[in-house]
Amino acid sequence: MRKGICLTLILMVSAESYCLAAEPGVGLTIYNDNFAVVREARKMKFSKGQNTVKFTDVASAIDPTSVKFTCLSAPGMVSVLEQNYEYDLVDSDSLLKRYIDKEVIVAIKGAGSDARKL
């Protein structure tokens, strides 16, 4: 089974803007007792209005309250509306449960097959 871990930020942007990092990259400090601090800087472009940003493959032991988002180039233009941390084991049963009472499209590869809604 594969662990599905995702951190989602929903941001409100007052005007189209770029969030620029002085030096994009990752910094890592490792402490005792399985504790580490990760600092990541990256360039991101946002449209005016609500934007959703997803970070996948997040560490399973992350403290969600420790996550901080700051736009360095336009700090007053971008604000975090919502932050979600989703962690679960991905298998066929948990995947199917997410889509109960929702429309799904099934694509079957092969000769003579067409995608259809279920």
List the uncertain runs: none
- Count of helix runs: 1
Mean pLDDT: 77
Shape: extended
Read across the widest sheet, the strand sequence of neighbours is 6-1-7
Number of strands: 9
Q: What's the story with the biggest beta sheet? A: 3 strands, antiparallel
Q: How do the helices and strands follow one another from N- to C-terminus?
A: EEEEEEEHEE
Radius of gyration over C-alpha positions, nearest whole angstrom = 19 Å
Instruction: Briefly note the structural class of the backbone.
Output: mainly beta
Q: Summarize the amount of helix as a percent range.
A: under 10%
Fraction in beta strands = over 45%
Tell me the distance between the termini: 26 Å
Structural write-up:
This protein is mainly beta and 118 residues long. It is 6% helix and 48% strand. It has 1 helix and 9 strands; from the N terminus they run E-E-E-E-E-E-E-H-E-E. The chain is extended and about 50 Å long. The mean pLDDT is 77.
Keywords, separated by commas or semicolons:
two-stranded antiparallel ribbon, 6% helix, mainly beta, 118 residues
Q: Topology of this protein?
A:
Elements: E1 2-13, E2 17-19, E3 25-31, E4 35-41, E5 44-46, E6 49-56, E7 78-90, H1 92-98, E8 105-106, E9 116-117
Antiparallel strand pairs: 1-6, 1-7, 2-5, 3-4, 8-9
Give a short overview:
6% of the residues lie in helices and 48% in strands. With 118 residues, it is mainly beta.
